[in-house]
Amino acid sequence: MTVLPRPSLIAYNGYDTGLGNRVRVVLSAQSLAEHEGRRFYYVWPTGPRFGPRFADLWVHPTRGRVVPRALSRGLARLYPYVDESLTWLDDAKRAERVWQVRTGNALALPAGAAPWEDAFRALEPVPAIRERVGRFFDANLRGEPYVGVMIRAHTVSHRRTRETSPVEWFVERMQEIRRHDPSTRFFVSCDVPEVAARVTAAVPGSCTQLDKGAYNSTEGVRASIADLYLLASSGHLIGPHFSSFVHLAQHLVRERLDFETPLTQAAGPVDHRRHGVVRDPLRPAHRDVDTAPGAPSGTGAAQERRPG
User: What are the boundaries of the region Disordered (predicted)?
Assistant: First the structure.
């Protein structure tokens, strides 16, 4: 397949690029392509380091088409990669037939371009993810506000994240919050099952998904996306420094939730109830603010650990 017959834009993702970076690069590049009247393509490598295609995660995820990594690299001899800054965008660049964007960040979209976050919120997860989210939410979290906690502990996590966001800090912070309000409940998302089990065992009132599949396999990434919607359905977010994943949860709820990291911690209690209760965890921005907390109603088997 050729991409040369009409003006085009190709968004390039590296083979080892994680989910958060892939989503924001592809969707922001799609917005730029539509704003500039260009046909949109993107590189989405799959294999042992990252198993699923975009379409394995969300239904009709983009209005573009996937192109092979080799094709993009070959075209780079004629059409070199540019970055997310868009400082390169001028009349001479607009005359070029192909643009190739290679970055790990969302593009700095021009005025008038559709926000990529709107496209992200509009995505519909595939049935396997929808069912997983619904089962866990109904069995463990429905009807009551809670705090969402996202921990990065895997060895492939960025060095800055591991150094600034140790697991021990999350446990101490959760215990501190619970001392102020012993009824506080937590949903824990972690990329290492053993760490998730240790954290939930140390903090009463916490739960986490089990049986999430191998890291970055199709099953594993689907479970991570389920985590994403469950985090976004919380009333307060605690996450690691320098991780794009937890920010996807913020985008799902239009940045309404208070968010803290080890570097931005506000000591003391948190008000995780003021944002209300989510009815549909796949639409976490829609909340019943006046709904009084009640006991969670459960249907189906839960993939959880709730030690207290």
Answer: 280-308
State whether residue 10 is helix, strand or coil. strand
What pTM was computed for the model? 0.89
User: For residues 64 and 209, what is the distance between their CA atoms, to the nearest angstrom?
Assistant: 33
Distances in whole angstroms, Cα of residue 190 to Cα of each of 58, 101, 104, 213, 224: 21, 31, 22, 12, 9
Enumerate the β-bridge partners of residue 101. 11, 82
Cβ proximity of 40 and 63 under 8 Å: yes
- What is the distance between the alpha carbons of residues 48 and 216, in angstroms, rounded to a whole number? 8
Interstrand relation of 186-190 and 259-260 (parallel, antiparallel or unpaired): unpaired
Q: Are 234 and 270 spatial neighbours (Cβ–Cβ below 8 Å)? A: no
The residue among 299, 288, 184, 270 whose CA lies nearest residue 233 is 288
Please tell me whether residue 100 adopts helix, strand or coil conformation. Answer: strand
> Using an 8 Å Cβ cutoff, are 208 and 200 in contact?
yes
Q: 125: how many CB neighbours lie within 10 A of its CB?
A: 20
Are residues 184 and 225 in contact, defined by beta-carbon separation less than 8 angstroms? no
DSSP code of residue 140? H
Condensed to tens digits (0 to 9), the pLDDT of residues 109-144 reads: 999 999 999 999 999 999 999 999 999 999 999 999
Q: How many CB atoms lie within 10 A of CB 299?
A: 10
H or E segment to which residue 150 belongs = strand 147-151
Cα–Cα dist 35/33, whole Å:
5
